[in-house]
UniProtKB/TrEMBL annotation:
InterPro entries: Bact_Chemotaxis_MeTrfase, Chemotaxis_MeTrfase_CheR, CheR_C, CheR_MeTrfase, CheR_N, CheR_N_sf, SAM-dependent_MTases_sf. It catalyses: L-glutamyl-[protein] + S-adenosyl-L-methionine = [protein]-L-glutamate 5-O-methyl ester + S-adenosyl-L-homocysteine. The keyword NAD does not apply. Residues 1-265 form the CheR-type methyltransferase domain. It holds the Pfam family CheR. Keywords: Methyltransferase, S-adenosyl-L-methionine, Transferase. This is protein-glutamate O-methyltransferase. It comes from Desulfobacter hydrogenophilus. Gene3D superfamilies: Chemotaxis receptor methyltransferase CheR, N-terminal domain, Vaccinia Virus protein VP39. SUPFAM superfamilies: Chemotaxis receptor methyltransferase CheR, N-terminal domain, S-adenosyl-L-methionine-dependent methyltransferases. One of its GO terms (biological process) is methylation.
Length: 265
């Protein structure tokens, strides 16, 4: 089963389906990975290649479950925190901080580490805020909504934040931590497709879209970047991953001096 022989037309169809659904560009270097992941989904669904491709054509959820297996949901708390820390600091000294409710959108939130990372820092600062956390994947959103993580995910969280906003697990949850409700109540998790769905607003103070464009080609990345630009209010911040770049794209963002991968509208 691990050794799948794709017909050229089947491989072309599979790549096109993934690209159409979420913009992920499966180049030839990903062929062996693609075969192994298809084999995994075929074992779970007990189908052959032709049956599985037919199933994918009519079942968007299965497309997304398949995409989950070929993307890396490697995240942890306070990952690449410099840009988030800068955004939080700027919101904290905003001239209207006493009367304003700041809105943040984590546009590819994965298992929730990123929105919770932003939330605990905003909470510690004492500002009023709400966070919209979205992802295309049902499975990572389910993990994010539960807010339960292994201890090794929070190694970079300052102890003062850890003690204040996390609950230590006991019994079967020994070795785990849970985000406290006072943080969870500020975050709304929703399914969202960066490629096909409309922006959920145009007045966000910050948008984080980090470590997802590494899977896109330049054309798709440019379209997503300009789409997210429209979701920001005046002087809103836009953060991408440290391994990503807006070079060779047409966009109206201005870079923030001294903070890699951070831009302002």
């Amino acid at each position: 089963m691990n050794s799948i022989l794709f017909k050229p037309s089947e491989l072309t169809e599979l790549k096109a389906l993934v690209y159409k659904t979420c913009g992920i560009n499966l180049h030839e270097g990903k062929l062996e990975l693609l075969k192994s992941k298809v084999a995994k989904r075929m074992r779970l669904t007990q189908m052959n290649v032709q049956e599985y491709l037919s199933y994918l054509r009519s079942n968007e959820r299965e497309v997304i479950e398949f995409i989950d297996t070929i993307t890396t949901n490697h995240s942890f708390f306070y990952r690449e925190n410099k840009s988030i820390e800068y955004i939080v600091k700027q919101l904290g000294c905003h001239p209207k901080r006493e009367v304003k409710r700041f809105k943040v959108w984590c546009a590819a939130c994965s298992t929730g580490d990123e929105p919770y990372t932003a939330a605990v820092q905003l909470k510690a600062l004492g500002v009023t805020f709400s966070i919209l956390a979205t992802d295309i994947s049902h499975s990572v959103l389910e993990i994010a909504q539960k807010g339960i993580y292994k201890n090794d995910k929070v190694k970079q969280v300052p102890l003062s934040i850890l003690h204040r906003y996390f609950q230590k697990g006991t019994g079967k949850y020994k070795g785990y931590l849970k985000i406290k409700k006072e943080i969870q109540q500020h975050i709304t998790f929703k399914k969202y497709n960066l490629i096909s769905d409309r922006i959920p607003g145009s007045d966000f103070d910050a948008v984080l879209c980090r470590n997802v464009m590494i899977y896109f080609n330049n054309q798709t990345s440019e379209a997503v970047v300009n789409k997210l630009y429209q979701s920001l209010g005046t002087d809103g911040f836009f953060a991408i991953g440290n391994a990503e770049s807006l070079m060779n794209m047409k966009h109206p963002f201005k870079s923030v001096a001294g903070i890699p991968s951070l831009y302002i509208k």
